[in-house]
Amino acid sequence: MTKNAFDFEEMFRIQAECEQKLAKQTVKKTSRHQLKSVHHLSDRGSKLVSHPIALLAEYMYFLYEKLRDYYLSALARFFPRNEHIFLNSINSSVIGRLTFSDKKDYHTPIHHMHVELWAKTRLWQWIKLSEADTDTEGYFELPFDMSVIHRNRIAKKIRLEIYHTNSHHFNEHPIENTAEYRAERLNSLFKTIKINKSDLTGMSYNMGTIPLFYWEYRHDTALPRVVIKDHDLDAPQKYPKERLDAIATQFIPIELITRKHLLRIKRGKKLTIEDIQADYPENLTVAMEKMKPGITRSDQWFADRMVNGMYASTLDVDPENPNFYWLYYHWSSYDHKPDYAFNDISMKFSINDKGYFLPESITLKGPISPGAKAPSKITLTPNDGQKWDAAKRVARVSGGILTEVDKHFTETHLNTEQYAIAAYRNIRRNPIGSILFPHLRNVVLINHTADEILINESGYINRATALTPAGISKRVYDVLGTLDWKNWKPMKPLSDKHRYAHAANLFYNILEDYIDEFFVSYEDEIVHEWHEIYTFSQDLVENAVEPFLCKHLQKELQANPNAGKPAQPPSWYTTENRMDLNLERPFVSDSYKAVSHITTQPDLDKNKPEEYTAELNALKKACAYIIFNATFGHYWANSKQYDDIGEIRYSSLGIRLGTEPDGVLGSEDDDSIAPDLTISTQMMWWSNMLSKTGYGYIMRNEQGDINPLLIKKIKEKESEFKALGVDIYAIQSETNI
What we know:
The protein is of the alpha+beta class. The chain has helices at 8-23, 52-78, 146-151, 241-266, 273-279, 284-291, 299-308, 385-426, 432-440, 443-455, 460-464, 469-480, 499-528, 530-542, 551-557, 609-639, 641-644, 677-691, 708-716, 718-723, and strands at residues 34-35, 48-49, 81-85, 92-100, 114-121, 126-133, 139-144, 154-170, 183-196, 204-212, 316-317, 324-329, 344-351, 357-365, 377-380, 587-588, 591-592. A hairpin with a 6-residue loop joins strand 11 (316-317) and strand 12 (324-329). The radius of gyration is 28 Å and the shape is globular.
């Protein structure tokens, strides 16, 4: 396939036909197995319930929960809670203060938390005595009528109920035919504290400081992570049942395939990579190869996937020739295992007169064969035949691990978590919560699971790739240090065939319009509750990691954000989709921080119009950035994994140096280069699990908490998205897998 003879339109037609066929491909669950929870997933054997006695026990527990819920709902019907506050006169009160419970956070107040005082009569009737919200310092006062307690045969126990806000619900239709959809704030019971009736004797009863284990930051890592001691008991959120049902239905058949392979390997029975591949559902590259062998190994397919596939790479202009572009993968400074190829890679691309991307050269720096001692460097071009094809495979593998660690796990999962923790700790009254919470939901849960099965010492990345646990930890920290919302823009399209960049900009522009309209409707309320934005920003910045710029770019750009040294990058450096190096980073607690302040003002003054407008615009930009990464950014990196790492010999997350003299530049069918059989089937487990266990989509709005205005605006651009190969109904609403 030469450049001149290659038919790009045929390649994309084959891709489209295969995507349509694969979209109809389903794996039916035919076994009785049940999945306990998402946290029990594992590529070495998920915790499934399969024994008849265990299944019966699960069913009995299910019946118990149904009966319990029926009993509680019956009690609520027969003894309904009257929201009317019984208050003839105020002659007593209950006071106290809510703070976080962590010893380093003990003096931090929990503001605007809703509290209520309830009593139950001996006839099981509920009486509401008082309600209030904590103030900005966490204090609350619940005035009540003492005579109500004695007059209504109140039982001995009085209850202080503490509520938190973690979701909203939007009305289905705009109010008075305007663009405004009102959000109802949903409070749920967080904690109940009993008060002895005998203690309520004076003018006031002081409950003192009440520490709450509530969205606490971890101290065992430098990353901004939430404390989860036991996923099933004390996690700050829980998956909806529908999410668990979806993953069980879609994924248990894949789980059973992996188990079959692992058992065959354990028993020493014959198994090949081809056997493993054939047992799993077809992916995009396998399907395309069946239609036209060699199509996915072509230069043209390689280049297109690097910019439009899972990788969605950022290219820099060649400083010496603006007609060329460079893509760099730098790994050598991260701790890694010696038996894997883990080269620093430089890829040079051009764009032809029709806007299509083409690879010009690939440079591999570092060992490429077993036993290599001296540092090596080799540059290959399309004229190098089989070794060129092998170099493309090395680049695909390197791009795969970079996408998984950098883009998927760090840029979307961990990046979203740092905003989620700060938001849930601080935003309750402010309407901003209604547009952020639907997209921040559950990310801390899936990240906790990823710690165990993907990132930690026993996780898949350590077992299947060149990176060691120390290398993974440093890489994640460094990448998080390159991420900031301020002045961020999506990737700039380099041609009309740069589909990812066009789609990203289309989605981001929708977000900007949506947020602008939201602010028109809610500006006064947002400003009135600005204290929550201030504390949100404070938590976000104080817990952020240090900014990072590699030593090579520090030298080339004359910048170092971690030393308070901003700089204007040269024209060859792509500034979109990257941290703004012009900004001086915030300096907090003796260190610079990667994330910029959204605001440093506890309140806003309309009499200072320039400052007022700038602060609101900063919040708008931050919201757009947060929502983009949690939705479209995650959707792109996550949903295309089975397309690009769903064929073992085409691309895995790790490639070994092998046993032959050519090392990684050997033939694709060399098993000594490919992952071993265990890692191969576990890789297929991962790529299926990440791409094929969907729940939580913007357009489906399964939980009714996404603003209909956003859904409407995306729907209006459906044809434009379709022209770019994006199905709007597949865009995820949250980072939950």
